Structures are given as C-alpha cells and as structure tokens.
Amino acid sequence: MAATGAPVRVPVAVACRVLGFSSQGYYQWLAEPVSQRDWDDAHAINVLRDIHEDDPTLGYRFLADELGDAGIIASENRVWRLCQIAGVFASHHRRRAKAGKPGPPVHDDLLAVTDGHGVIRHDFTATRPDEKWLTDITEHRTSEGKLYLCAVKDCYSGRIVGYSIDNRMKSALAASAIRNAITQRDAVGTICHSDRGSQFRSKKVQRLLKNNGLLGSMGRVGSSGDNAAMESFFSLLQKNVLNTQRWDTREELRLAIVAWIETKYNRRRRQRALGRLTPVEFEMIYMAANAA
Fold first, then answer.
1. The domain at 112-291 falls in which architecture?
2. Which residues are CB-neighbours of 105 under 8 A, at least 6 positions away?
3. pLDDT tens-place string over residues 210-252
4. Could you state, in order of their start, the residue ranges of all structural domains in the chain?
C-alpha cells in the first residue's frame, strides 16, 4: 500500500487486517473515492439550504416534508443528520439575548402620505380595480393545530381577489395567495402592500411580484395602521367565522373560511363605503360604466 517504487511495500491484505478494514472495502474506495451516498447527501444538503434560505423558521421535520416535495425521499433522522452537518437550524430555536427585530423592508412604502400636520398616514383609496392590493396573514387554532390564511384584498371594491390556506405559515403561503389573485385579475402595475413579515420579504414572493409586473410596498415596523384596511377584513372573519364555534379539524375550518369569503363576503355582504353594494356588485357597475 506504499507508493510505487517505495523500498518497503506492505501487502493490502496485511495492512487492512492491521487497520481493521476489509480489503474489499479498500478496493471499492480506490475505484470510487466518493460514494453514491455522499453524492446524494451533498445534493440533499444543497436543496435543504435553498429551502432554509426561503423560510428559516422550518425545523428538520418540516424540511423533510419539503424535501419530499422536491423529489428527494429522506427519513427525518437522515434530514436531522444532514442539517447538523450543514448547520441548518430553525431560526426560532436559536437562543437570543434580545428579541429579534423585523428584517429591513425590501420595498418602499408606496401607500404612505403625509398630512398637513406632518403625520404619516396611508391612502387605501383607489380609482379602479386592481390599482392597489393589500395582503396579510392570520391564524386560528383547531383541535388538530393552527390553520393559516393569507388573503389579498382589492382597495377599490374591498373584494378578496385571492387567498391561500395552509397549516404552515411559510413563504409559499403568501406566494400562493398572490399567484391566485394574479391568475384571476388584470394586475399589471398593481401595488401590492404588506407588512414586513418574512413571508412577504422572501425571494419567492419578490420574484413573483417582479415577474408579473406588480409593485411591492411595505409598511413600517409595529404599526398596525399601515395595513388597517386589511385588518378590518380579518376582524370580520374573526367575528363571523373563527369565533363562532370550536373547530375540530383544519379541513372543517378551511371549508368554512372558503364558503364565507366566496358566498357571503364577496357576493352578499353590503358595505356602506360602497353605497350599500357588495364588492362584486360594485365592480360590475365599474365594468359596465367603462364598457359604455
């Protein structure tokens, strides 16, 4: 096993017996220094790092699920081992001396206006559909665990033009809601306003807005008034659906939310700000006026 031409050469069988290795394993290593398992682990670690960068809150169990969605089947124990190797950990599991601050905004606040007293307020009015959208995420408990809703609201009519429901609050939830709105509306040049949540600051959502010609907008830190019009919708949802009973399953609550948005809020709930019209009726009048 010494170098070729060395004065003393030890037979492979003797060296392997002394070192406690099998000669078969040595020859396999000689033919293939990097095993297929090592290649598979390296590929899985690269995917894990991409998933973690997109949503740092996911632990190894959720990362195992995400790997499965990416076509890599791995047990939770294996994912835990790979996370240890790669240094990938859920952000909320890290102990910090001080409370973490929200991340920097990735968009300017396009709805902010300064009144005559120098106070910053937000203009949620619009002159046409799909001029300004508001989006945010809310949660509610069931006996199975939490359920998360991300909704997109049109400032012109107050209509919910897109939404997504999931049992995890990650960037895909926000991206799915915005994508749902884009597929149903004429959204070129639309301002999409949100808070500074990590879901809305993610690269996935930023790419989605840019690729579809939408303009991102973000409010200030710790100011609920920066998205007050969206909070008013969630308040109605809380009173009319979420707090009406105890929900046993996520599916039961999901169906109730969808039914309320589609059959009641958008089509039957009259709003004084719209002249006691429903959001759907208000938009139909706009379309008829512009078609004339």
1. 2-Layer Sandwich (3.30)
2. 196, 201, 218
3. 999 999 998 766 555 567 888 889 999 999 999 989 999 999 9
4. 13-93, 112-291
